[in-house]
Design a protein that fits this description.
This protein has 325 residues and is of the alpha+beta class. The protein is built from 15 helices and ten strands. Keywords: DNA damage, DNA repair, Hydrolase.
Amino acid sequence: MANGGQGVGHFRKNQVKRFGTVAYIWRMKTLKMRKPALFSFEECLWFLNRNYDDCLHHIEPGQLSKAICINGENIAFTLRADEQHLLVDLNHGGGDNFPEAALIQYIMEWFDLDRDITPFYGLLEKNKTLGYMAKDFAGFRLISIHDLYEALCWSIIGQQINLTFAYTLKRRMVEQYGQKLEVNGQSLYIFPRPEVLQYATVADLRKQQFSERKAEYLLLVSKMFAEGSISQEMVRQCASYEAQVALLTAIRGIGIWTANYALMKTLKQLQAIPYGDVGLLNALLNHALIKDKKDTVGIDKLFKRFKGWESYLVFYLWRSLSSKS
């Protein structure tokens, strides 16, 4: 797939400081990205929504808007698609020297667009139970979380609670400690930086209904990232996947499930399986692929058939839990 972008038009930034928020008047520029084979923007967009209240993007029919920080510059963009392209409308950011290539790369990684998933579909189609997924979920991609710190925080937030409440807690934390951009009256949030969240207290997070233990974990991880005792690059440079898991699980509050979730979502470690995940176990039971939630033999037997694509299988099993109807 071509990963270059071509711009149409120009924009200028107008900003007004207002109660700690930066408000911007929309000046748009559009980049084009050719869609790869076996990619469905509609399928990915639907999964990102699923009627959950995710404060880090705003979804409308056929498009989503998001704010991110690239090279120290906060930007907002809207992503939509035509038959052959993804269209990226830059709503704010970067001025004349905006690094378009960096944004294109961000989107490529977000939707895993530079990966040929044909071999995975071949494995699906050979499986009598799961073969329907190749057609019903055609073009669905492993949607990433770009920042390891964010992925770890999100997985800590989601430990042992349902997704609806997890998204509620996430919104409270992001609105309090993250950054907000207002683009044409629409509020778009950027996940808090560890340098900011490390200065919150357990009492502060308890007021937002975090458990005391989760608050402690979040503050510890924030402090470690802020001080540089752990980093995304440090984890990336580990000699093996097993070494990455060991490095992460040495941190208080990060177990096997949390480590594998973060490695799957951020570093695209395709062998990462979030063992013990309730949604994964329910999907396996729904397909009669395991006898019960303790059937580790059945789980291992299935994933051995998808060696090298384990994380994609997890994602497709999660997808099977939700129906568009």
